[in-house]
Amino acid sequence: MSTRPEGMSAYIAVTAAYWAFMLTDGALRMLVLLHFHTLGFSPVQLAYLFVLYEIAGMVTNLSAGWIAARFGLTSTLYVGLGIQVAALIALAQLDPAWSIGLSVTYVMCVQGASGVAKDLAKMSSKSAVKLLAPTEKGGLFRWVAVLTGSKNAVKGVGFLLGALMLSTLGFVWATYLMAGVLFIILVAIAYAMPAGLPTGRKGAKFSEVFSKSVNVNWLSVARLFLFGARDVWFVVGIPIYFYSVLSDGTAEGNRTAFFIIGTFMAAWIILYGLIQGLAPKVLRAGARSEKALIADARRWAFLLSAIPAALACAAFMATGPSDWLTALLIVGLLAFGAVFAINSSLHSYLILAFTKSERVTMDVGFYYMANAGGRLIGTVLSGAAYQVGGLVLLLACATVMVLMSMIAACQLRS
Fold it and tell me: What is the rounded radius of gyration, in angstroms, for the C-alpha atoms of the chain?
């Protein structure tokens, strides 16, 4: 085992790399969603664009834990950033003259590469925190909350940045700009990264990625349904609903809609990230036991389920898009984001609390495979549910998935 790096300097380097990646990841999602919606893609076709992204995330997380254990955490972090640079350059090569079928296939493949990149970077960053964070007085919860919360705040800025770049620079130049900036940051991080993070062990076996811990497995199930509940409305349905309300179909109307949608999505992610960062204080984690925090995971999931249930009832009573419904959705989804952030932060802490240092990359990789599986289910349902049943079915699916997450959390034991 390599010597332990200086905790804070290594933590700063890992966090900076993760921030850079998530800024481009958020911007890319808005660029793809809004650009292809204006080209006439249906909600289901838009969902297809992100399907391979999530499938790639599942496969990557399942294997990334073993890869990091075998080759080291810094290797997987740098490879993730490098693949994202290549994916952005490839996306800029999209030809508007291509057929919709060819365009969907091409973007799916590029998004798949981006999904591999994201989950390599995520697994590396989260695993590093387990090895770097102090253990006394809730230090692990604080450090993982800051990393995860700040990452999501940065991703929220990326949503807004993506919408702004689409309306000003256009799709191609926006992707080239992001690729260039991320490449510069990759070089800087590789130069500045302190030595001492684990470099891998040659005897690591792929079969080790499957956890024998009951808590790790049930928490992974809870995570799957939690993130499915978010993405079922977040990925396609709600942005397209807002677009239908805000845009009159003209170029000026589209720019206005892009800006407002990007602002809302950015505000949602930033709020989510800020609340995540505050979760240890909200839950008084430093003064409470692991058993109490496990109980909180159940209670907060139940509270979360009430929000999409209420919004689904409101959408059912509405005759169609209206100002009052749109206003209620904005308030309700912001509330969902705040409560969701507490749930997510609890999960992020518990996975690191449940795993042992020698298995951290394996268990974190397995857990984030479930996370990607939830996003995949949510992504597919987001387009399909909105196209078939509109907001009512969309929000009803979110409610059911949160309740499934709560049931899985009830199986956790201290």
Answer: 20
The two tokens of residue 411 are 């199986």
**Cα(156)–Cα(150) distance, rounded to whole angstroms?**
10
320: left (phi over 0), alpha (psi -120 to 50) or beta: left
What is the distance of C-alpha 216 from the center of its chain?
19
Where do runs of H (alpha helix) occur along 283-359? 290-317, 323-354
Which letter, b or e, does each residue of 380-404 get, where b requires 16 or more Cβ atoms within 10 Å of its Cβ? bbbbbbbbeebbbbbbbbbbbbbbb
The one-character DSSP state at 99 is: -
pLDDT digits (tens, 9 = 90+) for 88-146: 898 888 877 777 778 778 877 887 888 777 777 776 666 666 556 555 555 566 666 66
Beta-carbon neighbour count of residue 334 at 10 Å? 15
Sign of CA pseudo-dihedral 382, 110, 120, 264? negative
Q: Write the DSSP symbol of residue 349.
A: H
DSSP string, 126-168: HHHHHHHS--GGGHHHHHHHHHHHHHHHHHHHHHHHHHHHHHH
Q: Give the whole-angstrom CA distance, residue 27 versus residue 167.
A: 12
The amino acid that residue 384 corresponds to is A
Of 236, 243, 269, 239, residue with least CA distance to 158: 269
Q: Reduce the DSSP state of residue 302 to 3 states and report it.
A: helix
- φ, ψ dihedrals at 21, nearest 5°: -65, -50
Three-state secondary-structure class, residue 194: coil
pLDDT tens-place string over residues 349-394? 788 778 776 666 677 777 878 888 898 888 888 888 888 888 899 9
